[in-house]
Automatic annotation (TrEMBL):
The chain crosses the membrane at residues 37-61, 85-103, 136-156, 162-181, 202-232. This is Predicted protein. Pfam families: EI24 (PF07264). It is found in: Membrane.
Length: 239
């Protein structure tokens, strides 16, 4: 069964490439340009964002709950809502925007190192800037569509968890490869075709990331994913 054999080979290769962390770590270790970007990403997403969530949910919130137990549950709910509104959501938005810029900088540096065709090679400054802004808008839309679908499917008993995991695996792989496609000048049609022809590889490639970051509450999952994505974003350059 050649088709089954080919699918198994794609799944195996995707999983192997998706877990090739030594390749990414070696690139970071040898690059003076990438180290500051990685440190900035870790400080923002790991220390500030994830750290503040863990501190509030597992240290501060229990203390507030015990101290304000006499005030009733309504006061506790107000504390949670205030934390989300005035700290988590603003920090999440800032993290998303800054991280996207850092990811692009990482991808650009590695693409040049590996002599990939970049956007700047065949375009003027205005076109290159427009492509960059288009990618910044386009990627969150793709992210939102996948997350919405996965969230809705997760409501279905039994099959929802598996279907959601598959969608998140595809999402993380698609998002990672977006940077390679962008610097190779792939059109949207070509990107989708590339994905469709390699759906098995993409599923396996994104699976480790989905396993690591997808089984926490939403904000915590987002922070963990944003923290490890700089490493994951380099793995597709080995494909």
């Amino acid at each position: 069964m050649p088709n089954l054999s080919a699918m198994f080979a794609n799944l195996t290769k995707g999983l192997r490439d998706g877990m090739n962390f030594p390749f990414a770590i070696e690139i970071f270790a040898k690059s003076k340009t990438l180290k500051p970007l990685f440190v900035q990403c870790f400080i923002l997403n790991g220390f500030l964002f994830v750290g503040s969530i863990i501190f509030f949910d597992y240290i501060a919130a229990p203390l507030f709950d015990s101290a304000s137990s006499s005030s009733g549950a309504l006061n506790n709910i107000n504390n949670d809502n205030s934390m989300d509104l005035f700290w988590i959501w603003p920090l999440y938005t800032i993290s998303f925007i800054l991280s996207a810029s850092w990811y692009d900088g990482i991808a650009e540096h590695v693409a040049k190192k590996l002599s990939l065709h970049t956007r700047a090679a065949n375009s003027n400054t205005n076109t290159n800037s427009l492509d960059f802004r288009s990618d910044l808008i386009y990627r969150p839309i793709i992210f939102l569509v996948f997350v919405t679908q996965a969230s809705l499917l997760s409501l279905i008993p039994m099959v929802g968890t598996v279907a959601g995991f598959v969608l998140y695996s595809w999402l993380y792989a698609f998002y990672a490869f977006e940077y390679v496609w962008s610097y190779k000048g792939y059109s949207l049609k070509k990107r989708i075709k590339y994905f469709e022809e390699r759906w098995g590889y993409m599923l396996a490639f994104g699976a480790p990331n989905a396993l690591i970051s997808n089984y926490f509450p939403f904000f915590l999952s987002s922070g963990v994913w944003a923290m490890i994505f700089p490493i994951v974003s380099l793995l597709k350059f080995n494909y």
